[in-house]
Amino acid sequence: MRTLVYVVASTLDGFIAAPDGSFDFLPPEPDVASYLVAEWPQTLPTFAHAQLGVPAEPAGRFDTVLMGRGAYEPGLKIGVTSPYAHLKQYVFSRSLAPADHPDVEVVAGDPVAFVRDLKAQPGGDIWLCGGGQLAGQLLDEVDELVVKLNPVVVGSGIPLVERGFAPSRFTLTAARPLDSGVVVLRYAR
């Protein structure tokens, strides 16, 4: 069975973006970019592959990416309609018109049912790119959590997981501190 892996950058106080959805306060530090190229190249946008030295079809465990509308929007603002063209791309939105976004599959239905069906199909693992609302809906389906914990506190914004109080325990499987102060934490359910 395929696994769902939430790979995301976060602040020390658990936010993945500002209240307006921007995330420029989490700049890609050179050592973090090098780490991602070596360990998680499929999580880098296709348009950045050549600049970062990533092959056009990067090797790795994922063949699918899931995005909430908020995670998809930043690319749209700069004219990128297919941010991860090297993967099968699903965007969860009830307001995007599928005809206007032919490079991704827009899903308006229940994310949990969709992911359960996707996990049962043959294929590689599934990367949950974000955002917080989608992660909150899918948290019970997340098999692995990879947090790039940034040494910054912002006070408010879009949380790592947005949902009501419902503790969900994960087990730490790896921790890798980088020179920039970012610590990559890996957890399994």
UniProtKB/TrEMBL annotation:
This is Dihydrofolate reductase. GO terms for biological process: riboflavin biosynthetic process. Gene3D superfamilies: Dihydrofolate Reductase, subunit A (3.40.430.10). Residues 3-184 form the Bacterial bifunctional deaminase-reductase C-terminal domain. InterPro entries: DHFR-like_dom_sf (IPR024072), RibDG_C (IPR002734), Riboflavin_Biosynth_HTPR (IPR050765). GO terms for molecular function: 5-amino-6-(5-phosphoribosylamino)uracil reductase activity. Coiled coil: none annotated. It holds the Pfam family RibD_C.
